[in-house]
Amino acid sequence: MTAVADRHLRVARPLGRVDLEAAEAAARDLLAALGADPADEDLAGTPRRVAAAYAELLTPVPFVPTTFPNDEGYDELVVARDIPFSSLCRRHLLPFTGVAHVGYLPGDRILGLSKLARVVGLFARDLQTQERLTAQVAGWLTEHLAPRGTGVVVDAEHLCVTVRGVQAPGVRTVTSALRGRVRDDPRTRAEFLALATTMRG
User: Fold this and answer.
1) 147 FRET partner, CA 20 to 30 A, in 22, 59, 113, 184?
2) How many angstroms separate the Cα of 183 from the Cα of each of 54, 178, 193?
3) Order of strands across the sheet with 149-158?
């Protein structure tokens, strides 16, 4: 029995561990480098809070990606739309937030619906680029579920664009990763993109 045929699939991605003590010391040094006094009463707890905040943002919530046999032979798209996420830009360590639209064309197995959001969270809680996040979600589904096709569209706003540099509030970045029939079959591709990005209730 292959890993894909198992009802419970293991999440094999190694998770980095945040060194809270080192992160707290680094935050204290950063405050001093920025001209602030870390001993100031208002800032005394800031290094600890900063370290804890980054640890939370960079620690994925563990989950078991439950799958079920596709006994009914369902052969149409399954799409979860508007999955909210937040992540950290690996260039500036500033947040970017948005939504992911994730879909797949089932093969022999169907993934529990809530797990599509879990997969987004698994990769969002990392130092990321949006392009990498989009590709990782699509790659995980392709590897672990073996669907006939996979599609991911991510729509996000980056603080490194809105509050620094060009300072362009409201600018959103859209990325996509399409695999299998969702990429190669024009009708399936068009259907996924329509379901993911144009239909609103």
Assistant:
1) 59
2) 36, 5, 10
3) 127-128, 78-89, 95-105, 149-158, 173-180
**Which domains, from first to last, does the chain contain?**
20-57 (no CATH), 67-197 (3.30.1130.10)
Q: What is the CA radius of gyration of the chain?
A: 20
Residues 6+ apart with CB under 8 A from 62: 11
Q: At what angle do helices 130-145 and 114-124 cross, to 10 degrees?
A: 130
Strands 149-158 and 95-105: antiparallel
Residues 93 and 53 sit within 8 Å (Cβ to Cβ):
no
Mean pLDDT by runs of 10 across the 201 residues of the chain is 38 64 96 95 95 93 89 96 96 95 97 94 95 96 95 95 85 95 97 84 47
For residue 62, the 8-state DSSP code is P
Structural contact between residues 137 and 83, judged by C-beta atoms closer than 8 angstroms = no
Q: Please tell me whether the overall predicted TM-score, pTM, comes out greater than 0.85 for this model.
A: yes
Contact 183, 189 (CB under 8 A): yes
Bridge partners, residue 104, by sequence:
78, 150
